[in-house]
Amino acid sequence: MYHAKGRGRGRYELFDADLRDDVEERLELATALRRAVGDGELELVYQSRRTCGDRRVTGVEALLRWRHPELGVLSPDVFLPIAERTGRIVELGDWVLRQALADLAELGSAHANLVLAVNVSARQLVSGRLPRTVGRALAETAVAPHRLVLEVSEHAFSDDPAGARQMLQELKELGVVIALDDFGTGWSSLQYVRELPVDVLKVDRSFVADLPGEQSCGAVVASALGLGHGMGLLVVAEGVEDAETLEVLRGMGCDEYQGFIDGEPAGLDAVLSPSFPLTQ
Q1: Could you read off the pLDDT of 65-95 as tens digits, one per residue?
Q2: N or C: which end of the chain has fewer CB within 10 A?
Q3: Structural domains of the chain sorted by starting position, each given as residue range(s) with its CATH number in brackets
Q4: Is residue 178 within 8 Å of residue 200, measured between CB atoms?
């Protein structure tokens, strides 16, 4: 969840050097994380999602950052595992959902067709409260349900596939869009696509990054496109960093993409600004 999509090519100087291996510091972070929400230390940045053809912005994905008062900006790779272990991941996920929808609502009618993607953790999915939380947040912000995309990794289904499937069905009944994230990284990807009520496939960046010169990666992406389009799904490529990769995706018929080719994740206004970097 909230993958460190801001980390490609070393562009973010995030504090994550040896932190995960230091038990003492992890314990200190766990204590600090308990107060981070109330102290206003969490913030969202956004990455645009665009059409492969004309590179028109169709949506944004909300990405979580923790601006620690002493350590600076912490990578999600550092604090989200801690949140998982301490059980605070549901609270963080709820905060991201509410804040991202509030940010979208503030745009008003200027971007009425823009969709918002929010990552959902395994614990959120099986907590039993997610449909109620989503419904309440949509009502409070007056955002149309079809503008909210909930991104779920297939790894979220490993512990309780039936329960997770039921939660997704309840969410679909609210009118939101369901995306299967990191597609291709799990052994049962095809099974999940067939059985789950998904609308979007997001091809994992590990296959997209080596697409121009790696034949096996091209085969995986082509398979994802064939499967997704055959089922009437939108297919999005993650981790696009250069024009060569984008051109290959265009030729393969990929629908949309996101990645550093359009700059680093930033505030919502900046990402949607006409002057935001657009690499040709």
Answers
A1: 999 998 899 888 888 988 888 888 999 999 9
A2: C
A3: 5-271 (3.20.20.450)
A4: yes
